[in-house]
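Reading a protein record of the kind used here takes only a little practice. To see the layout at work, look at the sequence and tokens printed below.
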Amino acid sequence: EFMPVHACWDCYVEQAYNAMIYAAENGADVISCSWGSYIFNSQANQEAIDYALGLGSIIVAGTANDNKFENMYPASYPGVVSVSALNHLDEKASYSNFGPHVKISAPGGDIGDALLTTNVNDAYISVAGTSCATPIVAALVGLVKSYHPDWTSNQVITQVLGTADDIDSINPGYENLLGSGADISSLFLRK
């Protein structure tokens, strides 16, 4: 099941944390956050994250698109599965943020190698960003949870991160800064 929640559009980032709480209180197993801020790091926001995690939700969030070694929130809060973006060769996308807080990377497109997505009026558009990579990881987390509904959040996250392809060797200079590896959805069945 999907629970679309309109967090905000041209509003205060704090309102998005209220949407996260709403989703968790209404039984969301996975909360996908393709939004964030460098400056809205607060105890109140950390408490909202902790509350949602305590209710059993898994929060997946993008690290941003500024090619920076810098914390983005909510992706950098403890307990959040933070996602960087890769190109079609499993290399860090040119724009993707990175750092030790990143848990996993996933396809996000790149300059000249964008992803196609649906748009209004039965059209497709080209897109790229950690906002594209994040829902891929969130979908994988949801898929693992659907196969193992009795698993704890930590077991689901461990399965996803533990079965990802190691991408350090093809990303020199970014070792241990792009997470456990590439999100390859077929790998979640590995034991």
Observations:
- The helical segments are 13-25, 43-54, 130-147, 153-162.
- The beta strands are 30-33, 58-62, 81-86, 104-107, 115-119, 123-127.
- The mean pLDDT is 90.
